[in-house]
Amino acid sequence: MQLSIRLFAGLAEVIGSQTLNFHVAEPPVTAGKLKELLSASYPEAAGQIAVSMVAVDREYAPDNTVITESSEVALIPPVSGGEPSPEENSTQDGFYTVTEQPLRTEDILNKVLDKDHGASLVFVGTTREMTGSERTSALHYEAYVPMALSKFEEIGREVMERWQARCAISHRIGHVGVQEASVIIAVSSPHRAACYEASRYAIEELKRMVPIWKKDIGESSETWKGADPASSDNRPIPPR
Predict the structure, then answer these.
(1) At what angle do helices 192-209 and 145-163 cross, to 10 degrees?
(2) For residue 211, which of 111, 95, 80, 97 has the smallest C-alpha distance?
């Protein structure tokens, strides 16, 4: 069985490709077994493979998930928030976007404004220059775009169900300079308490489970954040 596996961030750099054509001699294969086979074939990447998760058809897959030749397979390293695209990628309703273009706060806020909502909030995540004693020149973001958009929609549905709030999310990929926005989340709801809670939930869930990675470009080095194979805390967690 021949599988085409998408790779991202530091894992793609170690293996040397963003797409891996991998032969499975004894199909069928489970997600857990696939990781074992990949670790054996690419020992230099075994540490990162161990803390990565398999995504099958754009959903995080438990180890016992059976993979077929027709499955869309990706290996998701610990998220820190890809492949860059020259165009904007949006869901059909336009509420969720992944783009290389600069983000405009007003445009994203306008998506969620409602005449029956008395509260609205905008969260803006920007590139900071200093982290402790380390200086950042810029960040480079990468995303598994189709799955990222699907997860944004999942967050938006939960926000609506729990807080009766509207949510719009835009995330930038590619080069993001200091003080530039990498993510903007707009939320509106009938009352302010729900608006605060929904906004906090949206950014925390985005950081927890959406397949977006960032490379910290410093004065003397470049490092993928969230890709430390020694840290199990960086492992993406499937939604409950």
Answers:
(1) 150
(2) 80
200: domain range? Answer: 96-219
Beta bridge partners of 181: 126
Question: What pLDDT, in 10s, does the model give residues 157-210?
Answer: 999 999 999 999 999 999 999 999 999 999 999 999 999 999 999 999 999 999
Helix, strand or coil, per DSSP, at residue 27: coil
Q: Which of 202, 197, 217, 209 is nearest to 237 (CA)?
A: 209
pTM (global) more than 0.70: yes
CATH code (residue 203): 3.90.1170.40
Please list, residue by residue across 36-57, b when 16 or more beta carbons sit within 10 angstroms of its beta carbon and e when fewer do.
Answer: ebbeeebeebbbbbebbbbbbe
- The string of DSSP letters for 44-106 reads GGHHHHHT-EEEETTEE--TT-EE-TT--EEEEPPP------SS-EE-TTSSEEEESSPP-HH
Please tell me whether residue 217 adopts helix, strand or coil conformation. strand
Q: How are beta strands 96-99 and 166-172 bridged, if at all? A: parallel
